[in-house]
Design a protein that fits this description.
Distance between the termini: 41 Å
Number of strands: 17
Helix content: 25-40%
Number of helices: 11
Strand order of the largest sheet: 5-4-3-2-1-10-9-6
Strand content: 15-25%
CATH class of the largest domain: Alpha Beta
CATH superfamily of the largest domain: Glycosidases
Radius of gyration: 23 Å
CATH architecture of the largest domain: Alpha-Beta Barrel
Order of helices and strands: HHHHEHHEHEHEHEEEEEHEHEEEEEEE
Shape: globular
Bound molecules: beta-L-fucopyranose
Largest sheet: 8 strands, parallel
Structural class: alpha/beta
CATH topology of the largest domain: TIM Barrel
Number of domains: 2
């Protein structure tokens, strides 16, 4: 029933969700069910949840906001999305491979990390692993002496961008897959190779996808064993998706929920024994219909408007955007994708260059202990270490910003000081227009960053109201921007 080879995005995301469920079904509640649980929380639980904070590494990761993904490998040469593991390594043969071009393109787009599919479901390794022959060492590329991971790691370091490694647990090539203890050793050995020989790795991505189906091979993954290898070899790396540090948002369209909490119920497999954890969402999506490069999709690179919409619904909804840009058979990122990324960057730069609220006089309904260090002006000072807050028992409040002259804007931003946790449950933004407060945006959670879009508003004052919060709100930043006219929505 679920024997998937290549399918549209929805089917693959369903497959990943299903496989995450299957992978842990024997011992635990499904990841997605845990992540999406909506039951009202008891007061005691709310008190616990507000105490949960990110690790410094999780916070630094969130602050990257926009990161890039490279699905590249055997599938690029077979024109498929999922390999069956029987491919001849000789097929892998980029003609103009240049990881420095990838880094340039990603950096110009504003991405802060590059995540590479070191091994996908087909099992072909982009580095010369000593534990298998199914790798670049048996391909004609660079005379069998090539190492994609090495070239990518070096290019990332030279370009000042972080490196992430995707290693698929599902492996359709390795004969031990399904013989659980043996395959788990193989997988851990590969992890050790990748995490000790290539310098710093910031993110390790364990995909939950698996298309074995009910009659296929059954591999019981040693998640805790995998996590220990990562912690030991790269103590600062974050473990994503099937892992404790970064949560899959639950779809492959790049869209977070309107209500997106970074505090989640602990997952019994990934966070055994923990009631609540900091488990922030990552939105993975491809710039093309497929994850891998297919010449037939050259004209199907997502439109600028679509990418902007994705940006607002991911980065603007308390998530990190992981955008996949698959290199082509030359081993280069195709011009159509490069051009689209440039357009995206230029609109984002034009939009967020000037913050009309920055440094403007601000006042608040109340300030904790009337302490000037926690005053309203801290929400517009551009300093991520400072924030406005209310007294401990006060869970609503407002900040008003005086823009001086009437200014025109169509985007607002509110950020919580998530270094100390996530709290806000409901907020509204109003503008002073024609002698009255006019509502311009409202929402539920804020988290690290909430962006709202609306039609041009001209006003000399705005206010942000916190209508409901799990504890005193801590507002790190409020911003106002104007997107170029053609990007009205
Ligand atoms: C999915 C995989 O099946 C796709 O091939 C791709 O790697 C995507 C990022 O995750 O689960």
């Amino acid at each position: 029933m679920v024997r998937l080879t290549f399918r549209p995005n929805d089917a693959r995301s369903a497959a990943r969700a299903l496989m995450i469920v299957l992978a842990i079904a024997s011992s635990a509640a499904p990841v997605r069910a845990a992540a999406e649980k909506k039951a009202p929380m008891s007061e005691a639980d709310v008190r616990l949840a507000v105490q949960v904070v990110p690790t410094p590494q999780q916070l630094a990761w969130q602050e990257m906001e926009f990161i890039g993904f490279l699905c590249f490998g055997m599938n690029t040469y077979t024109d498929r999305e999922w390999g069956d593991g029987k491919e001849d390594p000789k097929l892998f043969n980029p003609t103009a491979f240049d990881a420095r071009q990838w880094v340039r393109v990603f950096k110009d787009a504003g991405m802060k990390l590059m995540l590479l599919t070191a091994k996908h479901h087909g099992g072909f390794c982009l580095w010369p692993s000593k534990y298998t022959e199914h790798s670049v060492k048996r391909s004609p590329w660079r005379g069998g002496k090539g190492d994609v991971v090495r070239e990518v790691a070096d290019a990332c370091r030279a370009g000042g961008i972080k490196l992430g490694i995707y290693l698929s647990p599902w492996d359709r090539n390795h004969p031990s897959y399904g013989n659980s203890p043996v395959y788990n050793e193989y997988f851990k050995n590969q992890l050790r190779e990748l995490l000790t020989n290539y310098g710093e790795v910031a993110e390790v991505w364990f995909d939950g996808a698996c298309g074995e189906g009910p009659n296929g091979k059954k591999q019981v993954y040693d998640w805790q064993g995998y996590f220990s290898v990562v912690r030991k070899c790269q103590p600062n790396a974050l473990i994503a998706i099937c892992g404790p540090d970064i949560r899959w948002v639950g779809n492959e369209s790049g869209v977070a929920r309107e209500t997106e909490w970074s505090v989640q119920p602990g997952n019994p497999v990934f966070h055994p024994g923990k009631k609540f954890v900091w488990w922030p969402a990552e939105c993975d999506v491809s710039i093309r219909p497929g994850w891998y490069y297919h010449a037939k999709e050259d004209a199907k690179v997502k439109t600028l408007d679509h990418l902007l919409d994705i940006y607002y619904k991911s980065v603007g909804r308390n998530s990190v955007l992981l955008l996949n840009v698959p290199p082509d058979r030359r081993g280069l990122i195709h011009d159509n994708d490069v051009k689209r990324l440039r357009e995206l960057r230029s609109v984002l730069d034009a939009t967020f260059k000037v913050d009309l609220a920055r440094g403007k006089p601000a006042r608040a309904g109340s300030v904790r202990g009337n302490d000037a260090r926690l005053g309203a002006d801290k929400a517009v000072d551009g300093d991520k270490a400072t924030y406005w807050t209310t007294d401990d028992d006060v869970t609503t409040g407002w900040v008003e910003i005086d823009l001086g002259e009437p200014a025109t804007f169509n985007r607002s931003m509110v950020m919580e000081h998530v270094a100390l946790g996530q709290r806000v449950e409901q907020y509204a933004v109003d503008a002073w227009v024609d002698g009255d407060w006019k509502p311009i945006a409202h929402g539920t959670t804020i988290g690290y960053k909430k962006l709202d879009r609306f039609d041009d508003v001209t006003a000399s004052r705005i206010r942000v109201r916190i209508l409901k919060s799990r504890a005193s709100p801590m507002i790190q930043a409020i911003g106002l921007y104007r997107a170029p006219a053609s990007q009205g929505k």
